[in-house]
Write a structure and sequence with these properties.
This is DUF4293 domain-containing protein. By secondary structure, the protein is of the alpha+beta class. The protein has four helices and five strands. It has a domain of 115 residues. β2 and β3 form a beta hairpin.
């Protein structure tokens, strides 16, 4: 049935994916005031202050470099859709388990991409000793990993209960 506890966890995964898509994941401040690096589900942007060139007014101009990371948003959206689809597969617990396994693999890939972008690519920006700040989008991804593990656990528990009751008949 849809009102089982694993269905709640699967819906929470979908909500976490919407939060991760809508909110920034990571931010790191530079050495000067307008310098900032930010990772969202769609782009990785760095805003740096460029020194003025000769013959131009003595004013610092910000330059923004944007790198699209649309594949991250695509993976996040796919995880949300799969978990929502898994809610309605309540009659086939083996399919739900398989969908949770696929979600776990994709969530691991998402976390790998995010950590690569923040720890390795972002380290060269600004102060190398500063790791930056993780924002609500990152914590939504961690919550989705936890909810996925819990949903998988409760699906397996239901399957074991059904198999145990079939043996008693």
């Amino acid at each position: 049935m849809i009102q089982r506890v694993q269905s709640i966890f699967l819906v929470l995964i979908t909500i976490c994916m919407v939060v991760a898509l809508a909110n920034p994941i990571w931010v790191k401040m530079g050495r000067q005031s307008p310098e900032i690096a930010q990772l969202t589900a769609l782009e990785y942007s760095q805003q740096q202050v460029v020194a003025p060139q000769a013959g131009l007014p003595q004013q610092l101009a910000p330059a923004t470099a944007v790198t699209p990371v649309w594949y991250l948003a695509l993976l996040i959206a796919i995880v949300g859709v799969i978990s929502l689809y898994a809610v309605f597969q309540y009659r086939n617990r083996l399919t739900q388990t398989a969908l949770c396994a696929v979600n776990a693999i994709m969530l691991t890939a998402i976390m790998g991409i995010v950590l690569y972008r923040t720890l390795y690519m972002g380290k060269s920006y600004g102060n190398p000793g500063d790791q930056g700040d993780y924002l609500p989008g990152f914590y939504a991804l961690i919550a989705a990993l936890i909810f996925n593990a819990l949903a998988n656990r409760f699906i397996r528990r239901d399957e074991k209960l059904v198999r145990g009751s079939d043996r008693l008949r």
